[in-house]
Structures are given as C-alpha cells and as structure tokens.
Amino acid sequence: NAEREIESLLAAVNAERDVPVEFRFEAAVCGGIPVIRSMQSDFPGDQVSMLSGIINGCTNFMLTAMDRDGMSYEDALAEASRLGYAEADPTLDVGGFDARSKLRILMRLAFGVEVDEEEISCRGITDLTKLDFEYAKMMGGTIKLIGVATTVGENKVAAYVSPCYVTGSDQLASVNGATNAVEVISSNLVASTYIGQGAGRFPTANSVMNDIVALAKGDTVALPFNPLAKDTKFVNNYDSYFYIRIKYRDQVGITRQCGEICEKHGVSIHSILQNPITRRDDAAFVLITEKVPLSSVMGVCADLEGLDWCRGPTYYMPVLREDWNE
Amino acid sequence: NAEREIESLLAAVNAERDVPVEFRFEAAVCGGIPVIRSMQSDFPGDQVSMLSGIINGCTNFMLTAMDRDGMSYEDALAEASRLGYAEADPTLDVGGFDARSKLRILMRLAFGVEVDEEEISCRGITDLTKLDFEYAKMMGGTIKLIGVATTVGENKVAAYVSPCYVTGSDQLASVNGATNAVEVISSNLVASTYIGQGAGRFPTANSVMNDIVALAKGDTVALPFNPLAKDTKFVNNYDSYFYIRIKYRDQVGITRQCGEICEKHGVSIHSILQNPITRRDDAAFVLITEKVPLSSVMGVCADLEGLDWCRGPTYYMPVLREDWNE
C-alpha cells in the first residue's frame, strides 16, 4: 500500500510546513495508464456512472494463460511469478486485494466517495476452475478479474472485485496478458477506455517523471464542478446477472429443487447450461440468473450447498454488463 | 479544417499582442478522447515508434455495419448520414481526408514532424467490396480504416490513411460503430490505447471545457525532453504485409503469371486465398505478400491490371501489424 505510506509521510511533512506539499500518484494505479490524471482532468465536469477495470496484471496474465493456453492455475501462477508479474506475496494478487486497493483510489476520484477498503466485496481467482472457462467459452466469452464501482440510485455507489463473465465482443475481453484496462462510463464522454501497461520499470518511471514535470510546472489538480459529494454513500450490495456453477451428483429432482430454491429467494433464471454428463457422481451445470441482488444469489448458493446432491461449494460470479446477451 | 482556421485566427490575434495567446485543441481530434493532452503530457520523455488509430467515426460506423450486419456501402453511408456521423460533404469521411487531417496533427505531437497533408498517402473506403470482408473473415479478422504513422529507420517517419486488414484479436478489431481509438507504441509505455467517443455534442463540449479549465489554471504544455526533432523527415513509402485482391476471368496460367510479376518486383508471396469459383468469368482471389515496400505492391498491381484475364482494378491494403499471423 504505497499510497497509504505516502499519505502518512505527507501528513508528517505538512505538519511542519506552512504551505502544504502537493503529491501526485499516477504510478500507484495501473503503472503506465494515465488514469489518475485523466480522472482529475477529463472528468471534472462529467458524471461518472460506472468504472470497471482489469487493474491487476498478474491475475490477468494468469486468466489469459488459463483460458487461451489451457494452463493450470498452478502453472499460470508459477509463470506469472517467473516473469515478475506477481507481488512478493501473490495472495495480494490472486486474492483480489491489490485490485481492491486500486479500486478504492479510483472510486475516490470518480465518485468522491471514501470507502474503507475492507468493506469492498473481494473475490479472487483461486476458486475458478477449468470448467468455468469451458462454460464461459460456450457462452461466447471469457472470465476476467475486474474491479467495478457503479452508481446504484441517488448518491449511492456499490463496488466489488470479482471474476466476471465478459462477452467476447467486450472491449475488456481482448485485454490479455499483464495488460491493464480501465473503462469509464459517464454522461458526457459516454464510454472511455484506457488500455496499457499496468506495471513495469519503464511505464512506472514514465508516470513518475510526468508527475514530477507536472509539479515542477505548477499544474494544479482540477477542482471538479461537482465537488466530491460528501453525501455519497457506499452500499455493499449490487444487482447483476450472475453465473452460478453447481457441482452435483446426478439424481432425479435436481431441476425442481433448483427452481424451488431460486423462487424462494426471488431469483429468476435466465438460462441453464449443462454439458453432457460424463461422470454421474461428479458433474456440473451452470445457472445464469436474471438481474438480481448479490445477497439473493448468496442465499441461493447457501441453500443449494445444503442439499445432498450438491458437491462442495457452489461458485458464483457477476456477468459484467446488462447488455451481455444482445 | 478547424485547426487551420484557429491557427490563422491566432496568428492575427498574436500579431497585435505582446504576450502570445496559448491555444488548446483537444476537441479537434477524436472529440472525447484525451489523446492530444496525453501526447503532450504522457509522452514528453518517451519515444513514440508507431501511432495507429481509427480516427474517423463515420467510416468506422460504415465498416462495422458492412462487416457485422452485411449492409451495402450505400445503405451504410445513408445510415451514417441519418445518424449525423457523416460530414456535410461525406467525401471527407469516405475518402479518408478527415482522418488524414487528424493524422497530421497527431504526427506533429508524436514525432515532432510537420507534414504537408497532401503528401500523406490517402485511400478511403470507397473501393472496398463485400468480397473483401469475406476474405478478411476467412483470415480471422476484419477491415478498419486506419491512420498510421510509424518510424522507418533513423529520423524518418512514414504515414498513410488506408483500409487495413486487422486480426480478430487486435485491440482495434473490436472498436465498433462510431467509436474512435488511438494506439501509441513507445519505448517506455510499450503500448497505450485510448478508446472513446470520436465526436458528438457532449464529448466535444467536455473536451473544450477541460481545455478552458487548463488554460484558466495556467497549466502549460510540457516541453518534451526530446524536443521536436527538426531533422525528422517524412517519407512517402513504407513496408508492410499487403492484401491484394484480384478479380479475374478463369483460365490456365494465372498462378504462373502472378508468380512472375511478383518475382519481377521482388515481392514474396505469403499466402494465396481463393474461394471456390462460382462464376468462371467473374472470380476473385487474394494474395497476401510478405513484408514489402508499398511501391513494389503498386508495381505488381499495375502489371496485373495489364493482363487479359484481370478484370478491372486490383485492390490492395496493408495488413496492420507484423505479428498479424502469430
């Protein structure tokens, strides 16, 4: 958490000075992508409604290797470490925590909301299996670890870090390897996407140099026309289409029981995908829900896990966009 | 040519003042995409080696409609006009001239080279046919009208506006509709892509406002560490893989004659694509060359057109990247 260290250092310095020290932190999020400066300079008069990004290079490299090259999770992690994409403690990457730290910084810039990092729902890529990539491919898309922050009604912002199903034609679907990408949906600019190197010596150094140049020139950070809304609240729930993968032991009555449980939680089913069963005691199918609250999906999953035919934990992830199926 | 008008206006104003007026022109190229500011702020210490972009929304909308929806050129143009994507004189769009004006501005920023617009090779989308989209699909990609500027050896920059074959996994392949995109390849930032609204009232107004804010704050444009190279020369030729589509009347000896002509011009053939012939007197095949100079391809095309079995003009376009076939 370089940002926190800088903040406390700065607080200590400024306590002893009359003129406060300004600081810039372009390199703190997505190394070479000018997303911090763009949030500060291109969006002051705009209203952001959604921000979504592939903001961790290590996991994106791993997911690309698993999807495109059919590599196992372990091999993909080993390769990412070998290439220097993983943090010293790779849990920060694969657990989604690095992405969450960055998402929190971006949320402050995009929505003027200050969120306790721990409150942002964070799911890493550790529970993804080969099966999920197979089903994603059947659906015409892939899986990306994405940090999402989105307005949900007046003055409310929801956010999460999670693997997401992304359709093949989505701009983010073709962001592969250790590359990062951030997409901003807003009133004026409609949709802006920035794609580039998330980390690495030269991109990071370039960003640091540009920060120094901006400070040396005396450029000030733009004051938004819509000043940081003090009344914007963070809500730890969101609505989405969801992908739910359920492992099961085949028997009669499964579809009925699924239907009953979904109905109980008010979850409408959009579609069911099931590959031909090869092993009756170790099969899997996938439910795609209509747009429902995360909390309902978690309820469905908990209930399913209590049934005798359900093998081990269920796995759910949001579908990135509402128009994913058009 | 808003930019030229502004320049002459500014020259007139500055002639009567002591302190020169600064001007900014973010909205002049790709409306909502902060590519001008990014070129000025993110790349001063970097070395750009290639800049390529979908910088005309009207033609990209048309190509998307022709490729994805199988629309005819005429219908696509009518639809683009109806939606307000076309210039008052659509020749500026479909002839590639609007893209060329923007490319010239971007070249000045990226390479510090001042080019006479007329010198930049400019091919529009008017000669593309349904057949070309079919062959592009066979090759796994699509066709985009792209403005390209690229270094070719020490202190030399080549540039062109042309339809280009783009592979399906290319970031630019999934930029559809009236959306614009600019990709910059450079030493430090490696590859940066900016995707967004190319035009429209709100994106343009947003850019203009941000320019005004920057001027009001007194932000200055960064001075590059590598100051605009006065010795950088523009060269009106470039090497690339090329796609050549040849319409023909089927007869014996065509392959041999093609081979002879290519050999004469030093053009090595990478592959030949030919759909099953349905009409012997009106068929078409496609040659993909290895990396060769544009001038050689033009020589090959001229020679082919002189043969009795060659029906009407040949059509060539560059393949966007050297690694297109990996």
Automatic annotation (TrEMBL), chains A, B:
<dbReference type="InterPro" id="IPR045865">
    <property type="entry name" value="ACT-like_dom_sf"/>
</dbReference>
<keyword id="KW-0521">NADP</keyword>
<feature type="domain" description="Homoserine dehydrogenase catalytic">
    <location>
        <begin position="34"/>
        <end position="213"/>
    </location>
</feature>
<comment type="similarity">
    <text>Belongs to the homoserine dehydrogenase family.</text>
</comment>
<comment type="pathway">
    <text>Amino-acid biosynthesis; L-methionine biosynthesis via de novo pathway; L-homoserine from L-aspartate: step 3/3.</text>
</comment>
<keyword id="KW-0028">Amino-acid biosynthesis</keyword>
<dbReference type="InterPro" id="IPR001342">
    <property type="entry name" value="HDH_cat"/>
</dbReference>
<dbReference type="GO" id="GO:0009088">
    <property type="term" value="P:threonine biosynthetic process"/>
</dbReference>
<keyword id="KW-0791">Threonine biosynthesis</keyword>
<dbReference type="GO" id="GO:0009086">
    <property type="term" value="P:methionine biosynthetic process"/>
</dbReference>
<keyword id="KW-0560">Oxidoreductase</keyword>
<dbReference type="InterPro" id="IPR019811">
    <property type="entry name" value="HDH_CS"/>
</dbReference>
<comment type="pathway">
    <text>Amino-acid biosynthesis; L-threonine biosynthesis; L-threonine from L-aspartate: step 3/5.</text>
</comment>
<dbReference type="GO" id="GO:0004412">
    <property type="term" value="F:homoserine dehydrogenase activity"/>
</dbReference>
<dbReference type="Pfam" id="PF00742">
    <property type="entry name" value="Homoserine_dh"/>
</dbReference>
<keyword id="KW-0486">Methionine biosynthesis</keyword>
<protein>
    <recommendedName>
        <fullName>Homoserine dehydrogenase</fullName>
        <ecNumber>1.1.1.3</ecNumber>
    </recommendedName>
</protein>
